[in-house]
Fold this protein.
Amino acid sequence: AMSEQWDVGRALALSGLFRLLQGAGRACAAPFLTLYLRHLGLPAPLVGVVAGAKHLAAALWAPLCSRCPKGRRKRRLLVASSLLGSAGASLLLTLIPPADGDAGYKYCNASQQLGDRGAAAATVPGPGTSSHVSAVTNAKATREPEMPAPYRPPLRELKKETSGLGSAAIDLAGNAEESLYPTESNELSLFKTTLPTAGGSYESGNLSDHRKDAQGVSFEAVQNIFQDREHQIFLMVLGAVVLWELLATSLEWTVDENLYEYLDFVDATDRYGKLWIWSYLGASVGACSIAVFVDQLNCFLSSTITRLAVHFYGYALLITLSLLVSVFFPIHVPKRTDHVNKTAKALALLWSDGRAILYAITVFLTGAAGSAVQNFLFWQMQDRGSSELYMGLSVAVGLLAEILLYFFKGKLLRTFSSVKIVAVSLSLLAVQLLCYSFLWTAWSVLLVQILSAFSSGALWWVVNMTVDDIATPGMERSLHAVLQSLCYGGGASLGSFAGGFVVKHFGLAVLYRAWCVCLVLWLFLILIVQSKLPRQKKINYSRLLAADSSDMSDSDEENERDWLVKAMKDESFN
């Protein structure tokens, strides 16, 4: 029973398979989420709010997951319910109708549209042509009675300008206003507008009428937000995405924490550090596979469901398969239950070290800048006429580049200092953003994505190494979690909230260039501040004990390269 209970190889194999399926499922849906929201007719600001809320919900929910059930059966039930719940929440997105019936036509090729969408829809030419615009306009005109009227501001200013056009125009405007603001009875009507006569002026009212009118305006403005078709779709999408992210975060945290506790009990945590490779491999395969499959489909699966819904179907399928794997997961519940607030302690440790503060701000800024790429790069590729295959390949190229560079991690960290690696990472991220702002063709994204190996992967090597240096026993994982929350919760959410509005008012190229300038300025600042900090190197003796004996050598040349010797020499010079 003991050998079956503590079979480390089996636990690692199951965890690798689980991460492979989870990574593939995530890559099927998450990178294409903002593209799907675009097809639903949501503008860039609302898409940015949804993406920001998604990151923020995950960051705030993760610390609460530490209160997960301690019993084995309860943990298995939590994993199973989170799996099924996240799959169901993702499928909810496919049931949300588009805000505008013509939103899908803008990004669809005529040869891929279904014939039952109507004769006008079947003959829509490619986007950007005059015939395409006229065809979409005709299609919209034929379906106008079925579509709810979008919200328009009150027509008071319009009526002031057209008050002299005659009684017919006044009646028309009055009918339009009555259709925009329907009320069940005159007594319940809070918003009333007195129409001017053809040559007259507004009737004067007393002070109480003005107060009631002001209250009516504010109430009606709030009411119209919820009655507007676009905002209704936005609220439905926001609820589904936040629910999906909360369930997915609970699942990932519970499975990850359970495996680490299991390996910690059998003293095998050194084998935990490379499991992320399986997630990246699964994500690479999942993103490419779903993109190839979706490219073969018609633009619409039904009258209201676009082919992008297949991304969420693929996610639900892979999550269901991972549910079968989780059944055989070993569950270990530690006897000690410490309720110490490790998040506050991790923040105190970060605040106590100058270099850690610099790297915390760095990951915050890189998370914010990276959100611009994650949220809107596929929009830009689609505008360049890209197929989904290039989008999937762009995800895979970035992840595979990080995996390949990881095999040179030790050599790079020994050859270059931490400051140099951070400087190169920030520089390459700025170059990526600059290249995206001048994107000429869709396939050029694949070349730029190779730089992600350094701009993302190598940067986190240095950050994690700094965390290991300042961490007290048992605080390593908490420090990593805090930095991840700063990057993906704080930085990415703030970048998403602001990015959507910048894209709407200034354009995507301006957003990329603005973040490029910010990163370059921060690079100069971090180099200046780093040179002023006192030089100190904390020796982590646990790393020395965990080192393999084969790395030790008696030769003077290799001792010179040994990190412990270098650290002790640095100590002696200070």
